[in-house]
Design goal:
It is a single chain. By secondary structure, the protein is of the alpha/beta class. The protein folds into 2 domains: about 60 residues, no CATH class; about 180 residues, Rossmann fold (3-Layer(aba) Sandwich), CATH 3.40.50. The strands form 2 sheets. The protein has a 6-stranded mixed beta sheet with strand order 6-7-8-3-9-10. The chain has a 4-stranded antiparallel beta sheet with strand order 2-1-4-5, with helices on one face. A hairpin with a 2-residue loop joins strand 9 and strand 10. Helix 6 crosses helix 8 and helix 8 packs parallel to helix 9. The radius of gyration is 30 Å and the shape is elongated.
Length: about 325
């Protein structure tokens, strides 16, 4: 305001006055001042964006600096099996994260899954259930013991070949921003139309897909945002059915669904688990009543093992307590 007042005063001075200011010069000065002020005000926003970009760049560089996963272990056999039966043994497995070697995440994990058997892992949050499944995929090196698939140490397999025989249905379904067809066919890129439709039907997915005007060519949006949670989960199950893996990992696949969606998804999961080795990480204990064996994990150890009926009748047992707590909250 003082600047404008002083400028107006100089404009009204006689033209002969050496301090006289033309009205055009004053107007130009005001416009330039506004531009400069806006630019200076925007520096704070730019600084925030720069800091955000630097943080994202650091995370990207961490990924780029990671050593690539070995697709073939040396001097191991590098097995590339044409088929996998699905027999799994965890032999006294221990694990500590490389970044926190002082914390024992898993200790003396020892169990056997026969080919085609269904095993459920239950326990409190942070007990190590997902870590047990992740080690089968060799996401981290073991700290002790070994994991055996069909009689061979997982370290002896070609990493890509072993993972091609394992299917995962996670709690947070990952769909790509393409069509339903593309998302299902990701499990088998060369699948025919008939194979995709059959997988969708077996996953209780075809009913809602066929209701869309574009059918399989319906675009699901970024991360499947145009589909409901239950629909996204069933598309992921159809993908796994199409892939037809010998070993299946279900990581709390129904925990975030409502009762109606859970019923449809559970039916699709039952179809998916037929005749294949299944490792099920469960939060809702009602979904694992029919499995062959339940392993209760607590503090990185197996503290109980048995069928649903056996464990639910064990007085003072952790599984019985978890089961009772869920029924009280229902």
């Amino acid at each position: 305001i003082l600047v404008l007042w002083r400028g107006a005063t100089l404009v009204h001075t006689p033209v002969s006055d050496p301090n006289h200011l033309q009205i055009g010069d004053l107007t130009a000065f005001i416009i330039y001042t506004a531009f400069i002020g806006a630019s200076v005000a925007g520096l704070g926003e730019i600084y925030g964006k720069v800091q955000s970009t630097l943080g994202a760049s650091e995370r990207i560089l961490e990924i780029l600096d990671e050593a690539p996963e070995p697709t073939l272990q040396e001097p191991a056999l590098g097995l590339v099996p044409a088929q996998v039966r699905g027999e799994i043994r965890y032999e006294h497995v221990a694990f500590r994260y490389p970044t926190r070697p002082d914390v024992a995440v898993l200790q003396d994990i020892d169990f056997h899954i026969a080919a085609g058997e269904k095993i459920a892992l239950v326990g409190p949050s942070g007990a190590g259930k997902s870590t047990i499944a992740g080690l089968l995929m060799q996401f981290y090196p073991l700290s002790g013991g070994r994991i055996v698939v069909d009689g061979h140490d997982v370290a002896d397999y070609d990493l890509t070949a072993l993972r091609s025989h394992i299917g995962i249905v996670p709690q947070e379904t990952l769909l790509f921003g393409g069509t339903i067809r593309e998302n299902i066919a990701y499990g088998k890129p060369n699948a025919t139309e008939a194979e995709i439709i059959e997988a969708a039907q077996r996953a209780n997915t075809w009913q809602f897909i066929s209701a869309f005007p574009e059918g399989l060519d319906t675009v699901v949006g970024d991360r499947g945002i145009k589909l409901s949670g239950g629909q996204r989960q069933r598309v992921a199950i159809a993908r796994a059915i199409l892939k037809n893996p010998a070993i299946l990992i279900l990581d709390e696949a129904t925990s975030s669904l409502d009762s109606e969606s859970e019923k449809l998804v559970q039916g699709a999961l039952d179809e998916l688990m037929q005749h294949r080795t299944s490792l099920i990480i469960a939060h809702r204990l009602s979904t694992i009543r029919k499995v062959d064996k339940i392993l209760v994990i607590d503090g990185g150890r197996i503290v109980e093992a048995g069928s649903h009926d056996e464990l639910s009748e064990r007085e003072g047992g952790l599984y019985a307590n978890l089961l009772r707590l869920q029924f009280e909250l229902a």
